[in-house]
Specification:
Blueprint lengths: L1 H24 L7 H26 L27 H18 L1 H19 L10
Helix pairs in contact: 1-2, 3-4
């Protein structure tokens, strides 16, 4: 994970440089692309930070082990529900939110309410009903 973290640190630096250069190029008058590029840098650094924290918590992964084998990646990566409908609803809620940004605030509010409902449903999917732990 160390190599991947370093790559994301470098990508973040690239986006900072690109945003600054772009800002000077458009004389800081364009307010969609400049913040978006800075946000990309921040998101890249968030991923790099997460990878660094994960490596400190779990140690060196198979990708960073010089003697690592493909079989070292075997095992369980998490619990996933293949029968779950919550992600589909959350995706539709996100589509409603984006539509609301273009059409009207009342559609946006409906999307936010639907998004909260589907997010809570997905998070607490294994906390109730037949599959409760």
């Amino acid at each position: 994970m160390k190599v991947a973290a370093n790559i994301f640190w470098i990508i973040g630096l690239f986006f900072i440089a690109a945003a600054t250069l772009y800002g000077f190029w458009v004389e800081w008058t364009e307010w969609a692309g400049i913040p978006a590029l800075y946000a990309l840098a921040g998101m890249s650094w968030m991923i790099a930070w997460y990878l660094n924290v994960t490596e400190r918590k779990y140690g060196v992964g198979p990708a960073d082990d010089a003697d690592g084998q493909i079989a070292d990646y075997a095992g369980t990566y998490g619990t996933f529900a293949p029968w779950s409908w919550w992600p589909l609803g959350l995706g539709l809620a996100c589509a409603i939110i984006v539509t609301g940004l273009a059409v009207g605030w009342w559609i946006f509010i409906i999307g936010v309410i639907a998004g909260a409902y589907f997010t809570f449903g997905w998070v607490y999917e294994f906390s109730r009903g037949k599959y409760a732990h």
